[in-house]
Amino acid sequence: MIKRMGLIVMWVGFGFFAQATNVITQDEALDLARQEQILVARLLKDIVLIGSNFLHKDVAQKDKKKTIELFMQNLKKLKTFDTSKHWQVMMKKIEQQGQQSKAFADLQPDPTQGMRYLHVFSRMNHLWDAPIAYLEKKAHIQPDSPIGILTSFRIYAQQIPTLYLLRTWELKDPSMVDQAMEHIGQKTLIGLQILQTAPQTTAAARKLLKKLQGVSLYFQIMWDSKVRTPVIVMKKSKEVQSIIERLMPIYAP
Asked: Does domain 24-141 have CATH number 1.20.120?
């Protein structure tokens, strides 16, 4: 009997340990929530790439599947992070919108529905603003913190190729795409100004920020010229992501 009780205690102990290892910290929750916004932008980019019959179509198909899987894994962890009613309401809204976004992702992309895709995924992206703000407030992090700004830049690096590709679709009202690009340009400029004067900014960081500023200017010039060069834009977006990866450790708390 004692031996059997010992086994039960041991199994219960292992079960508790397994559950404990699945618990994420507040910092990890914030990182995951920020990552979810990047994944939303990445998923839309994959969908538009597939719908545009672009040369990276096969790669986009595989990436789309991976992106959805990672998004759902992160969401599952975040749902159990905080049991408060406020948090659960936010997660419920995201889960419902996520189902609609996934339904769009599962369909063959339709170039006549570009504005609808942009609307659905923009809403999904904005729904993450509230959980991120909630977590930043709990951690006493300012909304315009260097890491938060760099995360926004990561999102823009996914969104800019999408907007360029959407330009080649049959859009009934292209003004929404123009407004989205203008918004990115304005936010990038403000973000760069904050980073350039941040206390953590080193000489090496300033050089990287100058490169980012150059690429941002390039995007704006190409957009204003109405030139359709998605291949070059894709390469430039990867360059932005590479620069951000080098900047992240400099501004890490």
From this structure: yes
